[in-house]
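Structure tokens please, single chain.
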Amino acid sequence: MKKVLIAASFLLMSKVSLGQTLYTDSTLNLKTKMQLTNIYIDEVTKLAFASPYTPFTIGISDTINGDLDIPVSKYLNRKRESILETSKSYGDTMKEKLYELVPYSDKNDIIRAILFLQATNKEMNVIQK
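Here you go.
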């Protein structure tokens, strides 16, 4: 179970990190509200997975797959697995709820939120010890 959970989390994070497109205001304005909603949800998901690890990041590749300044032990591995499970659950809930809610927002507000989350996620990826 542990190996499957770890493998699944790395696959999910690699999927999230591989799709890192840098959006601009002009490229986002060309998209529909539903496309913007999906981009927004992707950015929220990245934040949910990356933010718990920002205090430990010493590498610059990204906050999950980079080198983390956390000792290796069974106890700490269980804690990290618990955080991954919680992040996944949070991400799933947000996908479900936000997909229905975000399209009711003004298009410019969705774009502003995407740009903010994108900048936040980018900054988390370069935090150094």
